[in-house]
Amino acid sequence: MSFELPKLAFLLPRNAEYVGQWHTVPIGLSRQFQAQAESRLFLIDAALLAGRLPRRGRFGHKGTYGHALLLLGSRGKIGAAVLATQACLRSGVGLLTVRTPAVGYDILQTSAPEAMALTDPAADFLSELPELTPYSAIGMGPGIDKADSTKVVLEQLLRTAQVPLVLDADALNLLGANPDLLALLPPDSILTPHPKEFERLSGSARDDYHRLELLREFCHKHRCYTVLKGAHTCLGTPTGELYFNTTGNPGMATGGSGDVLTGLLTALRAQHLSALDAALLGIYAHGRAGDLAARHTGEVGLIAGDLTRFIGPTLQELTTPDAF
Q: Name one GO biological process term (predicted).
């Protein structure tokens, strides 16, 4: 039990066995004082997100809501491409083009007919960066593997992109293996590592508290937003604030969940949301979709594809406050 607000220790993995289920209890502290108190630690909840996701205009059209490009997949990993694609489509983007190796063409056209498939000349891996002019945001990483040709594509993307980037999975592993590429990272990019991927980017942490300091330093140095995934996913910002998520459940610890998050974040950035708003909304909606899905499947039976079904209802909640 904690008065008014949780303690940071409640949110860190190594303390889980000592904390168990935690609850906050109001004791009448001034809400005005709390709002004015200086802090660099925040919880991502519905109150924090109020008003950040614009309602759709009656006369909006597909051009209003952005054109996203996803660079996805390799032989044996087209499933990751499908999950990210379906999540992006469910997250409100107006148009979506998916660049995939030739091996993924039939699969993507069948599983996501609403997306346009742009086939790479290579059969098994991404080998060329397409023309980027049409796009308002670009996501890269799920299923791409770490072929030399794919590293070249990533470097070209970092050097030439003029729109927001979302990087995940093997795009992050390529950055970790080639630190010189980090210097090319455009400001306000969103990175979505799990703890081991983050370790490859920033070095080993002594403990959970040190990892948060490394997160702050990394985001400040590279002027990026980093989504450190976990039970209370933590968003690091270039200015040093840390935001901890309040949605999600252990059933989401399954392959493909991160691919869904990549598609969701890319769609929000394509709709011209700021990096901070897109990251906060995406993290919360991802976890909330998992909570809604678990009501139907249970946590043990939850798979990543279930998350995509509940992204729409979650985003509807965020534009309809009374739904809570």
A: metabolite repair
